[in-house]
Amino acid sequence: MPKYIFERLGRSLISLFIIITVVFLLVRLMPEEGYLGKRSDKMSEKVKEATLTKMGLRDPVVTQLGRFYGKLIKGDLGLSYIIAENKPVVQIIGERAPYSVAFGLAALAIQLLAGIPMGICMARYKSKIPDKLGTAFVVLINALPAIIYFLIIQVYVSGFFKIGMLFDKGDPITWILPCVCMSLAGIAGYAMWMRRYMVDELNKDYVQLALAKGVKRSDIMKKHVFRNAFVPMVQYLPASILLTLSGSIYVESLFSIPGMGGLLVQAVRRQDNNLVQALVLLFSAVGILGLLLGDILMAVVDPRIKLSKKEGAR
Asked: Which of 183, 238, 256, 283 gets the highest tally of CB atoms within 10 A of its CB?
């Protein structure tokens, strides 16, 4: 187990290093006004050049990258020069993170409470009305671009129930639609995979043998099929949880929620380079951490997984 964990950790660190480097280089291609803020319009070219040189942006790229990693290790992600002039990026993200985490937790609860039971119901009533309705929902959510049903919910559902279209911190009712929007893809995902794994289990010999011996189908579903089917889903849970908590770019922007997803859109539009860089790195790190935890959790809960390459490790 320790060897397996260290191997996965090493791969994750290499992936993160590559992503950080690529993002750093790409951000350097953005307009330099993103490092100068609102004052850039009043600066002469000579003053701009002197300021950029003082900030180290005229140093060789390798030198800049080394300096960036040195600051990153200390938790310094630089300053914002546009969204909040000369304000630490870490502080800006810290102010926005609670909104993303709060909505993420609510959406995650809805996903788990609705998606997994839906998948179980679809598997239990395979090819019947519940399965067909569930399949139609899954296909609809996966086929339509998310922005389309987000807009439908925002415009028509909010109008039908007389709910505000935009997030209002002082009105809890306006929190409902963003949570629903954030959870729809997760519900469809959990339902689809839960159904698939349960159907696979139901077709196995041990289930048929148990039925032939007279064991109740409901007991088989609860004690064996559900447990065995849930094991493959474990690897997706950490990534799903972390990505949900990090915020939804679409939903937060659409409903004007002051979270990290909406902040990223705002930072890109206004070309706040340091803030864009920090948020992209944060979302990337969260995704990689989720995959790492999923691999480790999968190996812990399923002793059948072989951890050495010769024995068929993933």
From this structure: 183
